[in-house]
Amino acid sequence: MKEKLLNKIKNKLIVSCQALEDEPLHSSFIMSRMAIAAKEGGAVAIRANSVEDILAIKAVVDLPIIGIIKKDYPNSERFITPTMKEIKELVDITVEIVAMDAALRNQVDGVSLADKVKYLHQHNVLAMADVSTLEEGLEAEKIGFDLISSTLSGYTSYSKKSNGPDFKLVEDLVKYTNTPIIAEGKIFGEENLLKILRVKPFAVVIGSAITRPQIITAKYNEIINKYDN
User: Fold this and answer.
1) I want to staple 26 with a disulfide (CB 3.0 to 4.6 A). Which of 19, 114, 171, 194 is the partner?
2) Would you list the domain boundaries of the chain?
3) DSSP-based helix, strand, coil % in the chain, nearest 5
4) pTM of the entire predicted model
């Protein structure tokens, strides 16, 4: 199953269809339509957040799902699938891959990343590590994650802050690990994408540039306002 799934996404585009509660397109129905549009455009998999959105997407699109559940816990910086509770919810709805925060910070529930990966493998689900640094990627590989993603670059207090993709992190992860590397985070426009592809990630996830129109609009508006001045 793992080899078949990895072959399906290798060198391809994965689209992240997400909208949080404070965003204009927050709706499981709208995310399901986004997923249909992504498939029609050539996406080979969908990254989605919440049980409700994933079930709506699975009802209309037959693509592999990278499932996450974003949830805040008191006194914790972990946000993406932070505990076993969220992992079990995703396993119960049969996603192919579960992505989780693999940053080097305390676990909310006291369950190690290694035990979380072991649980997923026992249920024939692949585990994706969302990391923010090379060190975290190297640790994720040791633990046994099936894929490593650059998702969290810029979202931990100690990682590089940038308005664009972390090209160096993706390049280093590709160079220093043997695990499939997923390039994700702030990839906007052809120039960004071509530069990412040159460092040869296993696959690419694009989200906001495709599925968050308020962010896309703001970027165009910024250009126009600067031009006007």
Assistant:
1) 19
2) 2-228
3) 45, 15, 40
4) 0.96
* Chain segment 164-200, per-residue pLDDT in tens: 999 999 999 999 999 999 999 999 999 999 999 999 9
Contact, 65 vs 54, CB < 8 A? yes
pLDDT tens digits, 59-74: 999 999 999 999 999 9
Please give the structure tokens belonging to residue 146: 């099936």
Token couple for 109: 């529930």
Q: Which residues contact 162 (CB under 8 A, 6 or more apart)?
A: 153, 154, 186
* Chain-centre distance for alpha carbon 176: 20
Which segments of 64-166 does DSSP mark as H helices, in order?
84-92, 113-122, 134-143
CATH superfamily label, 2-228: Aldolase class I (3.20.20.70)
- Per-residue pLDDT of 117-161, as tens digits, reads 999 999 999 999 999 999 999 999 999 999 999 999 999 989 989
- Tell which residue, 14, 32, 21, has the closest CA to residue 201: 14
pLDDT computed for residue 205 by the predictor: 98
